[in-house]
Every structure is written in C-alpha cells, then in structure tokens.
C-alpha cells in the first residue's frame, strides 16, 4: 500500500478534554465522522484499558474528494466518562450507544443512553475481553419480562406423531 | 371440530384424510420469516429461475394469520427470539415450521452469546434444511419432503 | 382533537421491509411526527468471533456481513490484514479481486432495486432482476465454489485463479444482465406510479448526508461524488476508467437512478479488467492431475516421480490452485500465505510450511500494530480497523465500519414529516442489510 491517507494521522487526546479537541478539529474542517469505535487492551499492560477512536474526514462536497483524515485516540479507564460528540456530528449518538453497549464506556451530556445492538435485559458488555464469547443469558419471552422457562415461552412437546 | 368425533372410525376418515392431505400439500401458504443471508437463497428459490410455484408454494402470505407454513430463514438472535415465538403463536392451526439454513437448525458457526442455538429450542420444527445457505436445489428437495409430511397428516386439527 | 398522535410499531418482521429492524412511529393521521429506530435484531457477534479466530479464518465470517455483496467484504478484510502485515498481492490477484468486487456490486444493486421495486408493487421487475442476479451467482459459483458465502480471499491473495473461459462466460452473463436491466428500466424509469412514489420522497440534503457520515449511493444521490475507489484508489482502480454517477436532489428516485447507472459502470469495470489482466496459468487440464490421496499413497511407497509429473487434483472447488497459478494470484510471503498443494504434499519444506500455518496457536503471525483500510462496498465506505498484538495468531480486534449504520442513524430524521407510505421506498433505497448493520 502506497500511502496511508485513508487512515490519516494518529493523534492522542486526553479523555478529559475530548470534546474540546474534537470541536477544534471540527472547526478545522473535519466535517464528517467516519467512525467511532473502541478497543479493549486488557492484558496488554496499558495504563488505561480502552481506547475510544474517532475517525474524522475532511470531505469536500463539491469534488467528492477527501482532503485529509485523522484518527483520534482517547485512552479511557473503566470508570471514565467521555463527553458526547453528538452536538458536532449527529451520527455520534448511535455510535456512542454502540460503544456503551459493547464496552461499557460512558458518555455524558447526552439524552440518556440505550443499548444499540443488544436487548435491554442483557447484562454486561459483550465485546470486553473478559466477557466469554459463548456466555449466553436467559432468553426473554414474548410477554414482558418473562424468562425462557415461563409458560408463554416453554413449548417443547414432541412434535412428530405416528411416523 | 374433529372429523373423528362425527363419523365412526374407518374408511371414510382415512379417505377424507388422504383427500385433505393432497389438497393441503399443494396449497402451502408460507410465511417467510426472513432475517439474514439465507434470504438471498430464498429469493432465488422463489423467483422465476428455480420457481417454488411449481410445487404449490409460490404464494407467500405476509401475515401470520393467513399462513400455514412458517419458513424461518436466517439466524435468530436472542433479541429476535421473542418475535419469532409470537409470530408462531399467531399462526392458525394446522401449521408447520421449516428451519431454513444451518443457523436455524443448530446455530451454525455462530456459537456465541447472542445467537439462539437452533430454533427448535423455542418453536417446534417439522423440517430442517441445512446449508449455509442451502442451495436452491436443497430447498426444493426440502419442500417436497415437507409436502410428503403434510400429505400424511391425519385429522383437521394438528395437536402440538 | 386534531393534535392527538398515536404510536405505530413497524417491524422487526415486516413484509415490506427487507431486513430486520423496528421502527416506532409517532403519527398524526398518516403523517410521521417522530420516528425511532431500533436495530440489533441480527447481532451475531462478528467482531467477537473475529477476536477468537486466526487471520484467515475470519474471512468466512466476513461473507455474512453484507451478504448481498460478500466478495467486497472478503476483499476489504483481506486488504486491511495485508496492510498490517505489509504484503502486496501480485497484479493478477489484484485484478481478480476487482473483478470479484464488481460482480458483487452488481448483485447488490440488482437485489436492492429489485426488492424495493417489488415492495412498491412492481413484482415483474423483481423477477427480472433476480433472474439476472442468478446468472451472476452462477458465475460467482464457478469462481469461488459458492453462490453467496464465498470466502474467496486469503490474507495475501485469493483462493485461486479464474476458471477456464471466464471471460467468455462473463460476457454471456453480462449481456443477459444488461438486457434485464434495460427491460426493468423501461418498466420503472418513466412509470407514473413508480415516479410518484419515488420522486420527492426521502429527500436528504448534502449537509445532512455529510454530517451523518453517509457514503455510497445514498451520499452520491445528493450530488457529492464521494467514492472510495476515487478518493483513495485501492487495488488497480486507478488504472481503470469508470464514472461515478451522481444525483442532484437526494430523493429516492435519484438513488434508483444512481444504482442503475452503477450497475453499468461495474460491468464496464469487469470488462476492462478482463482485457487488462496480466496473463497467468489458468486451471490445469484434468489429464495432468492426480488426486492428493494418490500422491500420498505413492509417496509412502517411495514413488516420488509421480509428484513431479502431475499436479494435485483437488475438490472441484479448489481448482486453479496449482503451483504456477498460486504464484500469480497470491503474494510470495511464506510466513502468511499457504503453499500450493503440490508443494505441501511433494516436499518437506512445503509440508512444514503448510503445517506451521494451519496449526493451532502457531499459524500466521502479523506484527503488532493497528491499521484502517476501507473499500467501496455496495452501500458505501466499508472500513476495517484491524488491531494485532503480535503474539496471537489472530486479530486482537476487528472493527467493521458498516456503511448502513450511518444511513440508518439518519433515517428517523429523513422520515420526519413524511407519510407512512413513504417509508417503504425510503427504506428500500437505504438497502439496509441487517448482517452488516448489526454485525
């Protein structure tokens, strides 16, 4: 691969000032949030467990060319709270919900936070390194709050007759 | 009403069963519960090249109240499971369930926290069509097997 | 009385919505006051699985992300892993990847346009388009060995060479696809009903589209000609000639026109590739081949002459993987790329190389680091952020940037103020693929 323009320059930003840094980048012309994700480095000997990654792009709407990208890394610990980037790029709302859902990294200054991919009854954060991949949680029944062994869900009678 | 109660047991019921079975097997009203990749092969099978209509199953009913075969096409996640169960409950009897694709049969290679390991843990299944996704030929074979099963069914109401 | 609103739940299993998603609508009469979108009904833990697998084993999982264009996912992931490992695929391999990607893009757009037309009542178009897709699926079947779940790429190359007479077969299929597309276009493009449903509905402005990070046909319909193939050319796209079709109003009709134009562009791209592709050894003639087990048996009796004389005959799906072929479609990186089967069975070095690469917890090692690579998927920029810790034989983390998610996040805003009936064409033009959206 010749150049790494598609990844852009990597920048570290302290968790406490993430919104200010992002706002400065937004003012600099980074008008599109390409991605917002998180990596769990548990067991790699880092001071902070997670890296929240903001990937930004300067998109020129008239030519459709990309005038530069940047990859902003924000190291956060388990209890840390980042400030929401939703006022800058509205799509950050959903992406923050996903990061919270999968990693449990919290975001402040936003109207509540709901899981994006998993269901509300799910406990824990699935993409954390300490969540076992096959750890299943009880199925939720079709009626509110009923677990799998409730009468509305439990059906398994033998289905084959006379054959 | 069950036929068995009205008529004395014997030839008449058997004949009627056979006639009913024959009629039913060629008028499958399927409800495609399409969630994932298998839906692509389901489309292929339903469209003109492979043409499911040749087997009397060409008419999908998009309301569970009007369907008698529930085709579960694609992975069922834990979030989707209650929906599947509710749709199954809404279907009138007699009803049959087809597990289309290996994810619905056993969970396939999605052995993880969010995937139901086989839909037979939540609804009773009559026919399993394995494959990831099954080729249209496999689906058609499965469909003919289901028709055989439907033809053998006795009585008007199927107990579960 | 007139200000009273009520809630309507649409989905997650709705006949006119191909894909599992739940819309919670607040309605005032038929008008949507507020919409909320609930996703995650097909969350299959792709990213978690990728962390437990070896580098090459992640490829089958990527098939099932955007299952309408699986080959593009394969290529995107392989490019990201190769970027991290510092491998460059030989030119022929790159051309084959472009061919695969573009065929997949056509199937993607055919499915999207066909399904959304069907939802508007144009069932004939659906049948035509699926029929056209069928020809391409058969082509993909010959190329990869599977119709949908292709798993075609490897880290460092592709599975094998093009099958024999691929160019002729493609020309045949392309003619049929063009015919079907032209016919469908005649049925739709100036159709009063279709235009009334599509024109002026689901309008997105340039600003909204950019702010939400939308890409692909959805962004291009608003007039922004952003295409990863243009902005950041990967593989051999910079040597090929293609147009990026753009719309002007950002409504559903423009998106339809964009997709239809892109089908033609993709077919053109494949044709150019087939012309420009550097020569390579195609599949071997069956007469020159022997089954692998015959090799082994002969070898046990000390007969090594056989090994030199014949190529290994594999399963039909492994055709095009002979020693000459593999060299032209896969990189020469013995630490990452599997050797051809003849070498694995015919020489101790090849055997050990093969064994080391497939052995559990031994396998392919990629130096520690992080990278990001994106390709133009069916719906837009399909990115992979890949992290390696340098110790395990698999990725530490694979993040897939799903293009649909960014469009779906904006859907509540797009739908606000429109009628219930407008949901169907708007949602259809998103081409939401749950496998990619929820991963």
Task: Walk me through the structure.
The complex is a heterotrimer of chains A (163), B (160) and C (439). By secondary structure, chain A is of the alpha/beta class. Helices cover 14% and strands 25% of the residues of chain A. Chain A has helices spanning 18-28, 92-103, and strands spanning 9-12, 32-40, 50-59, 66-76, 81-83, 106-108. Chain B is α/β, with parallel strands linked by helices and 160 residues long. In chain C, the strands form 4 sheets. A 3-stranded antiparallel β-sheet of chain C has the order 1-2-3. In chain C, strands 8-9-10 form a 3-stranded antiparallel β-sheet. In chain C, strands 4-5 form a two-stranded antiparallel ribbon. In chain C, a hairpin with an 8-residue loop joins strand 9 and strand 10 (397-401). In chain C, helix 4 packs antiparallel against helix 5 (123-144). The longest helix of chain C is centred in the N-terminal third of the chain and has 29 residues, at 91-119. At the A-C interface, strand 2, strand 3 and helix 2 of A face helix 1, helix 3, helix 8, helix 10 and strand 8 of C.
């Amino acid at each position: 691969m010749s150049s790494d323009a598609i990844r852009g320059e990597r920048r570290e930003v302290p968790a406490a000032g993430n919104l200010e840094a992002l706002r400065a980048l937004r003012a600099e012309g980074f008008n599109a949030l390409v991605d917002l994700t998180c990596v769990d480095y548990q067991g790699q000997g880092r001071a902070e467990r997670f890296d929240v990654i903001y990937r930004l792009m300067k998109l020129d709407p008239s030519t459709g060319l990309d005038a530069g990208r940047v990859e902003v890394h924000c190291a956060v610990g388990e209890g840390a709270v980042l400030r929401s980037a939703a006022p800058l790029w509205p799509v950050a709302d959903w992406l923050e919900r996903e990061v919270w859902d999968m990693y449990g990294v919290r975001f402040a200054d936003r109207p509540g936070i709901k899981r994006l991919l998993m269901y509300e009854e799910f406990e824990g954060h699935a993409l954390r390194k300490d969540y076992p991949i096959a750890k299943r949680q009880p199925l939720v029944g079709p009626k509110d709050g009923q677990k799998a062994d409730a009468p509305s869900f439990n059906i398994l009678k033998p289905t084959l007759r006379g054959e | 009403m069950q036929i068995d109660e009205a008529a004395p047991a014997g030839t008449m019921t058997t004949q009627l069963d056979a006639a009913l079975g024959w009629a039913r097997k060629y008028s499958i009203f399927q409800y495609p519960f399409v969630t994932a990749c298998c839906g692509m092969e389901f489309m292929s099978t339903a469209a003109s090249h492979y043409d499911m209509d040749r087997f009397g199953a060409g008419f999908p009913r998009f309301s569970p109240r009007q369907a008698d075969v529930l085709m579960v096409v694609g992975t069922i996640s834990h979030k989707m499971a209650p929906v599947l169960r509710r749709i199954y409950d809404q279907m009138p009897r007699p009803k049959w369930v087809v597990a289309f694709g290996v994810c619905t049969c056993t969970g396939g290679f999605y052995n993880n926290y969010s995937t139901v390991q086989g839909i037979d843990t939540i609804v009773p299944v009559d026919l399993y069509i394995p494959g990831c996704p099954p080729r249209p030929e496999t689906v058609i074979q499965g469909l003919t097997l289901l028709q055989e099963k439907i033809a053998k069914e006795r009585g008007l109401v199927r107990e579960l | 009385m007139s200000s009273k609103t009520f809630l309507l739940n649409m989905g997650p299993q709705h006949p006119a919505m191909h894909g599992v998603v739940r819309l919670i609508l607040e309605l005032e009469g038929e008008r949507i006051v507020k919409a909320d979108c609930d996703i995650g009904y097909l969350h299959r833990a792709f990213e978690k699985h990728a962390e437990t697998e070896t580098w090459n084993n992640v490829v089958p999982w990527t098939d099932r992300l955007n299952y309408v264009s699986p080959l593009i996912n394969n290529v995107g992931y392989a490019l990201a892993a190769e970027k991290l490992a510092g491998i460059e695929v030989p030119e022929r391999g790159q051309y084959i990847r472009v061919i695969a990607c573009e065929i997949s893009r056509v199937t993607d757009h055919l499915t999207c346009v066909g399904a959304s037309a069907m939802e508007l009542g144009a069932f004939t178009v659906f049948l035509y388009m699926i029929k056209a897709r069928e020809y391409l699926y058969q082509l993909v079947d010959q190329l990869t060995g599977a119709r949908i779940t292709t798993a075609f790429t490897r880290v460092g190359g592709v599975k094998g060479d093009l099958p024999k007479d691929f160019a002729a077969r493609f020309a045949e299929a392309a003619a049929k696809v063009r015919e079907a597309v032209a016919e469908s276009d005649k049925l739709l493009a100036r159709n009063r009903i279709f235009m009334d449903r599509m024109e002026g509905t689901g309008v997105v402005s340039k600003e909204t589209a950019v702010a939400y990070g939308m890409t692909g046909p959805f962004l291009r319909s608003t007039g922004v000609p952003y295409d990863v193939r243009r902005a950041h050319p990967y593989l051999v796209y910079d040597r090929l000639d293609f147009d990026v079709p753009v719309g002007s109003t950002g409504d559903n009709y423009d998106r339809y026109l964009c997709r239809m134009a892109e089908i033609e562009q993709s077919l053109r791209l494949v044709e150019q590739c087939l012309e420009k592709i550097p020569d390579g050894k195609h599949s071997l003639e069956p007469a020159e081949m022997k089954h692998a087990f015959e090799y082994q048996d002969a070898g046990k009796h000390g007969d090594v002459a056989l090994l030199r004389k014949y190529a290994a005959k594999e399963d039909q799906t492994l055709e095009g993987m002979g020693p000459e072929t593999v060299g032209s479609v896969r990189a020469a990186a013995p630490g990452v790329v599997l050797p051809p089967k003849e070498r694995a069975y015919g020489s101790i070095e090849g055997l050990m190389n093969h064994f080391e690469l497939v052995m559990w917890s031994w396998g392919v090692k990629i130096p520690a680091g992080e990278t990001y690579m994106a390709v133009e998927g069916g719906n837009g920029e399909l990115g992979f952020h890949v992290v390696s810790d340098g110790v395990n034989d698999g990725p530490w983390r694979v993040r897939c940037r799903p293009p649909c998610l960014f469009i779906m996040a904006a859907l509540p805003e797009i739908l606000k103020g429109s009628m219930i009936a407008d949901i169907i064409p708007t949602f259809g033009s998103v081409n939401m693929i749950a496998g990619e959206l929820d991963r």
